[in-house]
Design a protein that fits this description.
single chain, alpha/beta, two-stranded antiparallel ribbon, binds uridine-5'-diphosphate
Length: 249
């Protein structure tokens, strides 16, 4: 963690070895705005229960999550697990919400979008530019090795303050950590399908569903391909309950 931060963002709460920060949305935004003032690139990840379960099977992914500068709880399941384990995680900090809050609050700063299907990042770029957000570049997340080098060179040349990576887990996190210190950005945010949402390609759940913690259900209905991840949810609950039994008996 960068020493320039006055706020103690080092306080972590472990859920199945994934060290979550227990920050409110406002505090998270403050930490990100502090990151932007530094000369170092900071990795920010937003794991949900499916990511925590993937990290149990994929140790490289677990190590990436453990080495991130900020680990933000995305998904109601993380919050419920925190309550169960009596951890001080006050609220969800969904990747899409915190990305938009950051882009709004840091309007003089620039960003670069990397991810989603061909054409989508460009759509997101236009939508953000209509809100006076500076977007220096936009590339899809389906590139080969040669294109990867071209993209790296472009990012190095453009020097965006914020790099938004939406290539799905664990690809986005592994890619982001691998290149973290060669890219001249201040924040690298791994945010899954957020570029689709910024583009208007995928709709957010209605507010009432979000408030009730049912965003996952909305996404399941609108993107049935996510159903293959569902078996991980009961496994997550079971594992968390097992840990809590060891902790509290
Ligand atoms: N994606 C990508 N490159 C890939 C695989 C996926 O850019 O090689 C994009 C995909 O088009 C979608 C996003 O990554 O925009 C995945 O969104 P999802 O919400 O599934 O993210 P996750 O929950 O896996 O982090």
């Amino acid at each position: 963690m960068n020493k320039n931060n006055k706020m103690n963002t080092n306080e972590r709460h472990s859920i199945l070895q994934v060290p979550f920060n227990g920050l409110t949305m406002d505090d998270t935004l403050q930490v990100l705005l502090n990151f932007i003032k530094t000369d170092v690139n900071h990795l920010v990840v937003t794991p949900n229960p499916e990511a925590v379960m993937l990290a149990q099977r994929d140790k490289t992914f677990l190590q990436v999550l453990q080495s991130a500068d900020l680990v933000l709880p995305d998904g109601i399941g993380i919050l419920l697990a925190a309550r169960w384990l009596k951890l001080n995680i006050p609220c969800r900090v969904p990747g899409c919400d915190i990305t938009m809050a950051l882009l709004d609050a840091a309007k003089g700063h620039s960003c670069y979008l990397l991810g989603a299907a061909p054409g989508i990042a460009e759509m997101a770029r236009r939508n953000l530019q209509n809100k006076n957000i500076i977007v220096l570049g936009a590339k899809d997340g389906y590139f080969d090795e040669d294109m990867g080098i071209t993209i790296m060179n472009e990012i190095k040349e453009l020097k965006p303050d914020i790099l938004i990576v939406g290539m799905g887990m664990p690809k986005q996190e592994i890619w982001a950590l691998k290149h973290l210190h060669t890219l001249p950005c201040k924040i690298t945010l791994c945010v899954g399908g957020s570029i689709d949402i910024m583009a208007g390609n995928i709709k957010r759940a209605p507010k009432i569903m979000r408030r009730l913690g049912l965003e996952w259900l909305f996404r399941l209905i609108t993107q049935p391909s996510r159903a293959k991840r569902m078996p991980d949810l009961p496994k997550f609950v079971f594992k968390v309950m097992k840990v809590s039994k060891h902790m509290f008996t």
